[in-house]
Amino acid sequence: MEYKIQLRESDMPKQWYNLAADLPTPPLPPLGPDGKPVSPQMLAPVFPMNIIEQEVSTQRWIDIPEEVLNILYQWRPAPLRRAVRLEKLLKTPARIYFKDESVSPAGSHKPNTAVAQAYYNKVAGIKRLTTETGAGQWGSALAFACALFGLECKVYMVRISFDQKPFRKLMMQVWGANCVASPSTETHAGRKILAETPDTPGSLGIAISEAIEAAVTDPTGQTRYSLGSVLNHVLLHQTIIGLEAKKQLQIAGEKLPDVVIGCAGGGSNFAGLAFPFTTDKINGAKIDIIPVEPAACPTMTRAPFVYDHGDTACMTPLLAMHSLGHAFVPAPIHAGGLRYHGMAPLVCQAIVEGLFAPRSYHQSKCYEAAMTWARTEGMICAPETSHAVAATIDEAIKAREEGKEKVILFSYSGHGLMDLSGYDKYMSGKLSDYELPEEVLQQCTKDLAKMPPAPMRKSGRW
Amino acid sequence: MEYKIQLRESDMPKQWYNLAADLPTPPLPPLGPDGKPVSPQMLAPVFPMNIIEQEVSTQRWIDIPEEVLNILYQWRPAPLRRAVRLEKLLKTPARIYFKDESVSPAGSHKPNTAVAQAYYNKVAGIKRLTTETGAGQWGSALAFACALFGLECKVYMVRISFDQKPFRKLMMQVWGANCVASPSTETHAGRKILAETPDTPGSLGIAISEAIEAAVTDPTGQTRYSLGSVLNHVLLHQTIIGLEAKKQLQIAGEKLPDVVIGCAGGGSNFAGLAFPFTTDKINGAKIDIIPVEPAACPTMTRAPFVYDHGDTACMTPLLAMHSLGHAFVPAPIHAGGLRYHGMAPLVCQAIVEGLFAPRSYHQSKCYEAAMTWARTEGMICAPETSHAVAATIDEAIKAREEGKEKVILFSYSGHGLMDLSGYDKYMSGKLSDYELPEEVLQQCTKDLAKMPPAPMRKSGRW
């Protein structure tokens, strides 16, 4: 038995997988301010055309450019590891595998799409990218990618994380990016929110508004916006995770996994691992595919499926997704990357189809799992990743109780070395859990009723 | 061309290499308080006998226990990477390879020996380990290893790093270790130094005194001390770095490297990479082997070769080494792991033999190199590692000027994600350099003249 399965560079997938080609029902299109589907041209001030083409593509396989591969090779193929010591501790008959995305220079799965997006902008002649970041994983990933392609990079970082995680900002600066706390005084959107709620901890929705505004109002026209999750092209770039994992499981002598697990904030990490296995499920394989979200921000498990904006200031098109409403500001949990009011439309459509079984956890349970993980497997995971670890432990115990020799695969989306303050709170007994109150959810749902309806389309039916 | 060369687990070396077997002149033995060589029994209160046997062994190859291999597999074999983008930037004909030890759970090469030491103590029936740590790389590595073997772990962390790097302490706590600032009030040695110099930034020498005292005074007799560098057995455990690199260079189609570079504080990182190539040099190969140290703590380049204690309170035997004196407190440079008054006796003996060509750099030059590295190769290195990066850049430029197609190999000993405050100082123009004044060096040398003489033995001559 090998403890980790390494692919050679020559065996790394050379194409991304597009789930849109295989979903029983294609996802609902984004809508413009007029309630009609947006055209590619309408998105042109925000994204370069080569990315917009990917965003709307229904082609099953899309080539990864060689320039992108040459940078991914730095840390990819990422290892698939076996959590032998955790299996032993839990006395489970399950075999637990995890795809280790923490090995990238920025410490998470995020560079997989950052590199691709920086490349496409570069070849489109763009000089500067703007973006938002929550915990800082995405901002540092884009800063890294921009450094390698010689692009300028501006990051709006959710204030609570900006204050809690000064070292993330330093990472971005080392890579040459400019990072400010959001809401900032640099944009109309930021100033408006600061005027209304000066003490706001910020949110991904607000930071996205600021970053889009900064991109589209640049008079030189050489700035575009880059998003770290949610959109189809971002999920596409992440499918290299699951494609590699599939090859690696075969090398390990496994067929398909019985359970696939990933934490989901905007959905790209989860989708990256899960989509290449979702196609097997669509074709009849029995796989439990589980996106895990925080109970403090329960989009998939409690929020309605609606048309809503991706950002707080309503600058994005309307996306068909599970949403708590674009004005929703999630409680200040440590997993900053999971504090998002919406969810990737492709993930949501698959949920509607019954392909995924989302669940939510409180952060104290996740930190407990992360501590167990650190002391058995020896790795310190990101607060986001701890949600997947918690679900994996639950599934491994379930396998023990059922006496089933299952194969569990989860995405180890990032390390927690930049996010240790949450561990500090947990160890000193000062960690709070936040349950979204039912009345807040009802108010969100009521507000969302003003948006255009998103018909639930399942298996081709409207 | 592959950007990184991965070995399979089955190709990982199963034995460590002991340079003591091949040095032209065996190193001088450690001396006890009576000026006579220490016997293994005299070290028994400090280390378990299985480690003492390794410390004095002159056997060329020593088996790595299977229990140790099974944990090393988690991140080993570590990748050998090619720094193609740096080569291009420098327009050098040199091929630059680096052995990436930053991929370990603790982020550096330190777990290579931490795991071995925890194992040997465990099988010797020891329940608890004490140690010192500078920047925290070693303390967190031992905490990690102790967690996996179920040992208690107590870490005395040099105060300046304890204050500058709170997250390192949190890492140790997540792995279950107890970490205090040194000098502490918990030991006689600590209290004495605090009484004399209450504002001391601390030093590795002081922290070692505290950790040894805590081990040998434990009334249960079940505590031992663990050292992260300097001693023969520690260097031995690190040779897996160079042994792997040797195999990987062959896979890459290279013969021996022309230049081998590593930063050196206590010497274990440098030795780990260099020793397996030193034997080739002894046998006639032409290799420039360069240990790099900070100009603020110049043991190899400026300090005399003498018998001195490894710690400030004179608890260790006398070691034959380049030393600035056991009472020397280095300036507060950011590379905490290089702030040590001495140097591994095996490294020093090889310097005496003319096998290594040590050099020193100021930290501002190293941070400049680290910034170049981050923006071309995309990786953020530890302040210690930046010394090796700086030397690599110098050597690559030299190869360009000489028009020589050299193979340069360096040890990428750790990532800098926990050490970003130094980058902050550099980027904001607030970084200071510290040159050791000649009069301070002369005073050190004068004080050391009171110690027993260490005859320079070169190539078998006394």
Summarize this structure briefly.
The structure is a homodimer of 462-residue chains. With 462 residues, the first copy, chain A, is an alpha/beta fold. Helices cover 40% and strands 15% of the residues of chain A.
Please describe what this structure looks like.
The structure is a homodimer of 462-residue chains. Chain A is an alpha/beta fold and 462 residues long. Chain A folds into 2 domains: 267 residues, Rossmann fold (3-Layer(aba) Sandwich); 163 residues, Rossmann fold. The first copy, chain A, is 40% helix and 15% strand. In chain A, the strands form 4 sheets. A 7-stranded mixed β-sheet of chain A has the order 1-4-5-15-10-11-14, with helices on both faces. The first copy, chain A, is globular, with a radius of gyration of 20 Å. The mean pLDDT of chain A is 95. At the A-B interface, helix 5, helix 7, helix 15 and helix 17 of A face helix 6, helix 8, helix 16 and helix 18 of B.
Secondary-structure blueprint:
The structure is a homodimer of 462-residue chains.
Chain A: E1 4-5, E2 15-17, H1 49-56, E3 61-63, H2 66-72, E4 80-82, H3 84-90, E5 95-100, H4 111-123, E6 128-133, H5 137-149, E7 152-158, H6 159-164, H7 166-174, E8 178-182, H8 188-196, H9 204-216, E9 223-225, H10 232-238, H11 240-251, E10 259-263, H12 268-282, E11 288-294, H13 299-302, E12 305-309, E13 318-322, H14 345-352, E14 359-361, H15 363-376, H16 383-402, E15 407-412, H17 421-427, H18 438-448
Parallel strand pairs in A: 5-15, 6-7, 6-9, 7-8, 10-11, 10-15, 11-14
Antiparallel strand pairs in A: 1-4, 2-3, 4-5, 12-13
Helix pairs in contact in A: 1-10, 2-4, 4-5, 4-10, 5-7, 8-9, 10-12, 11-12, 15-16
